[in-house]
Amino acid sequence: MRADLEIIKPWFTPGSRVLDLGCGDGELLEDLQKTLNVKGLGMEIDADNLTACIARGVNVIEKNIDEGLASIKDNTFDTVVMTQALQVMHRPDLTVEEMLRIGKEGIITFPNFAHWRARFYLALRGRMPVSKFLSYEWYDTPNIHFFTFKDFERLCIDRNIRIIERTVVDHSHRERWSNKLWPNMLGEIAIYRITR
Amino acid sequence: MPESLPANSVGIVTPQSIAFEQPLELCSGRTLPRYDLTVETYGELNSDKSNGVLICHALSGHHHAAGYHSMDEKKPGWWDSHIGPGKPIDTNKFFVVCLNNLGGCHGSTGPNTTNPETGELYGPDFPIVTVRDWVNSQARLADHFGIECWAAVVGGSLGGMQAMQWAIDYPDRLKHALVIASSPRLTAQNIAFNEVARQAISKDPAFNNGRYFENDEIPKTGLSLARMIGHITYLSDDGMGTKFGREMRQKELSFDYDTQFQVESYLRYQGERFSTAFDANTYLLMTKALDYFDPASEYGDDLAQALSQAKCGFLVASFTTDWRFSPERSREITDALVEAGRDVCYAEIESNHGHDAFLISSPRYDAVMAAYMQRVEKDMGADHAR
What we know:
By secondary structure, chain A is of the alpha/beta class.
């Protein structure tokens, strides 16, 4: 399983209801169903991913999350998770609010734009950073919002969102001492567990 | 007519008529003293009778869902695209049962069959039946085959309504429901279309209050008009544009009222053909069954409450250009199932075929169906409904 998914796995309660926003091919939910007996539901927009989910026994709904989650009642889920997708949302703040309305807890992972490589790229070359991890050009990237750990935590403060746990990892999802020392500069991927 | 049968066809099939001598109480309060159902089956029922798949037909459908009745038949059954060896509903794995519903006009007891109490045709005296009545009659059909629990109940449009009703009324007798291009209840616009169709039929002078058979006539004009209206709503604007555009039968405008555009002649042809192949009283009855379907109404208009009776898993699917049973209706079903905490998958499939898309093979549609049917196969024979 993808390393960031291994990191967040202990944050799920056995037997709970889990919604995975942008669930991809259903890898996380399948694992959580098998090992923690969670009741999983995914939302996805890519046709091939949807079929893959259906085939592997993961419940999945075709939905454009940007169009809203209003049809889902408050507190339907125990945990709502979104990995590496918040930066492609039209309004990430509204998505986070909605996650904590329909679920009791949220788990979010996103790429940190304040990582030192990105800072140097922009500072020295004067161009938007393109890296192995964020490999798109500015004009074709689905990542329409670039934000940092600090930005995200600011949003949490502004909206009265409580951060239960957080961790930062490098691009191969390793937790290093250096990331912990100076996360906004040295961490590439942020992983947050939040609630109201 | 097939020169030879394709390898993935169920081949030559023969319908059977099954008699049910127990009276059936109907939602209307009336009782059918006895009835026959015309049925086709494809594939083999396995030893523990766990691989049964029930196919429920839509407004003008019938028992002939797959294969050919003879080498002279021009077209295969109405869902041949999806039922057969190696097809999404794989007859190598499943025992597929398709019937003509009560009130139909293709062999099952209905307006064009004899009322045992009078010795005459039922005609307009045939009781109006509902989706629930159909499901009750289908449960007896399951008993007939010794099928305690269907691996899946599958239907498009009005057929999807039957799959939903099965899940609500007989939660322990199916493991999966496939609800395709369907709706939890008709909208006012939809009922309105049905009413125009009914008016077209009943205002035809040949209709004779539904006793047209006494004069050896059929209300051809009315039935044909009803079908034309229906047909327009089954296609999409885009689909019609692609198929016909403004293409004309001759080059010049003729400044008269003959058919000039290809779409006019197509509709007339479809209407004509239908009017001699379908029974007018059955058409009226089927549209009423559509109008009346509203399972939430018994649960304080709370669809989630209604569907929380169900235990089975659901596949809900809709098609982007379907405006008769639009994706919005399927999303309502899906949302209610999520609220009820039921297992549900939902796919919104790109197509420009409008409502008819559920009858037509397309790579994405077939992949979704096949993937879900894999799940159905895995759950076959498990001890209880999911």
